[in-house]
Design a protein that fits this description.
256 residues; alpha/beta; Rossmann fold; 2 domains; five-stranded parallel beta sheet; 10 helices; globular
């Protein structure tokens, strides 16, 4: 009798073990399948397709493209600063509204743009030490209209270019990786000296290997009355003028 009981218990124990193993195998398989079909959490993988954004910066200087790529990969922002005289306008009427909208729509949070307006000559800018204010902004790229209309008929173009070199040198001493982009102010009607100053700025940019935004070629000729449809009486651009100018800069900053 005792032998029979032991035999029965052995059979029951074996059955329990077998059923338990089968159940555990099913649970494990189900768990693996569920894990395989689950999406990867965005918190565990933070992949950014930098190539998508870099394709729009194809016209930028090579160093700027590398800095942009680094900013994107680090989930950071590349900062552009628009520096110039009152010719570049303000946050409401000027170059900024169109540029900010275009850059935000293209680069999302990875590129920002701000502006600084200075209504004195380049000599005053240097003597007053205003480069320090520029440096404090810590820009990665400076699109600089070097106060040409402010200097016009007050200081000679050679002095303007000397001051420009000083501004660039002082800035790069503190921000060695910053990129300067040069551009003239808007054309004005029937000027004689001013176009020669703009031509000298263009030559300076070429000799210093600095990118130059030659937006004048998109405006009507300065000696044509047609230009009056694009500028105000004080010589600053109107809405149509800023559209021409900002579209040119946008085409440089955002390659299609």
């Amino acid at each position: 009798m005792k032998a029979i009981i032991i035999t029965v218990l052995s059979i029951l124990l074996t059955a329990v073990l077998v059923v338990g193993n089968i159940h555990w195998g099913n649970v494990k398989t189900s768990s693996l399948n569920n894990n395989a079909n689950s999406p990867v959490s965005s918190s565990s993988v933070n992949y950014i397709d930098s190539d998508y954004y870099l394709q729009f910066a194809d016209a930028w200087p090579e160093d700027s493209q590398k800095q942009l790529e680094s900013a994107i990969n680090n989930d950071d922002t590349y900062h552009i600063l628009l520096l110039g005289s009152e010719s570049i306008g303000n946050l409401d009427i000027g170059l900024m509204p169109n540029l900010r909208e275009a850059l935000t729509n293209t680069f999302d949070k990875y590129v920002s743009i701000n502006s600084m307006v200075y209504n004195e000559t380049t000599s005053n800018y240097v003597l007053n030490g205003d480069t320090e204010t520029l440096i404090d902004e810590k820009p990665d790229m400076i699109i600089f209209e070097p106060f040409l209309l402010s200097d016009n008929n007050i200081i000679g173009i050679n002095t303007t270019l000397t001051n420009l070199s000083t501004i660039i040198k002082e800035t790069k001493e503190q921000l060695p990786n910053v990129t300067f982009i040069l551009q003239p102010a808007n054309p004005i009607y029937n000027a004689s000296l001013y176009p020669t100053q703009v031509a000298a700025l263009k030559d300076y940019a070429a000799s210093e290997n600095i990118t130059y935004l030659d937006h004048w070629k998109d405006w009507p000729e300065g000696n044509s009355t047609e230009i009056l449809d694009y500028i105000n009486q004080d010589g600053t651009p109107n809405k149509k003028g800023y559209e021409i100018w900002s579209n040119y800069i946008t085409d440089f900053l955002i390659s299609e």
